[in-house]
Each structure stands twice: as structure tokens, then as C-alpha cells.
From TrEMBL:
InterPro entries: KFase_sf. Gene3D superfamilies: Putative cyclase. This is Cyclase. It comes from the Bacteria.
Length: 81
């Protein structure tokens, strides 16, 4: 079974509510700030995941470096065994 995770952030609806209550801007896009101390890869908005079988493959992600950028896109590749 494939369970795609679309983001490390809470749905913005809830973040907006928390921000309205607290006024604390540091809670906005918390997941995107996770890589400040330890680098990590975050892939969002992948498509066609339903085309993959339930098992029997590995997924590799090849990131593109964007000059002077803090983010970029990846080439996601399924490798079938």
C-alpha cells in the first residue's frame, strides 16, 4: 500500500487558526523550516502514484540544483525489481 505524504506541515486551515489565536508567525510552514539544522529532502505534489504496484519497487529522487535557490524540483524514478 502506498501512502503519499504531501507535506510535513499541518493543513494551512489549522495553521491559520493557530496564528489568529497566538499571532506567532513562527508556526507558519514549520515543516519547511525543518532543514535548517539537519538537511532533508521533501517531495510534494507527486503525480501518478496510483500507477505503481503495492510492492516490488524502490523509488529514487534525483534533485535539480537551482542556482542561488533554496528549493528545486526532483525527478522521481520507480525502479522495479
Amino acid at each position: 500500500m502506498i501512502i503519499p505524504i504531501t507535506s510535513r506541515d499541518a493543513p494551512f486551515k489549522y495553521t491559520r487558526e493557530k496564528f489568529a489565536e497566538s499571532g506567532d508567525a513562527s508556526i507558519i510552514w514549520e515543516g519547511h523550516k525543518a532543514g535548517r539544522d539537519i538537511g532533508y529532502g521533501q517531495m510534494e505534489k507527486l503525480s501518478n502514484l496510483e500507477s505503481l504496484p503495492a510492492s516490488g519497487f524502490l523509488v529514487s529522487y534525483f534533485p535539480y540544483k537551482i542556482k542561488n535557490g533554496t528549493a528545486g524540483f526532483v525527478r522521481a524514478v520507480a525502479i522495479f525489481s
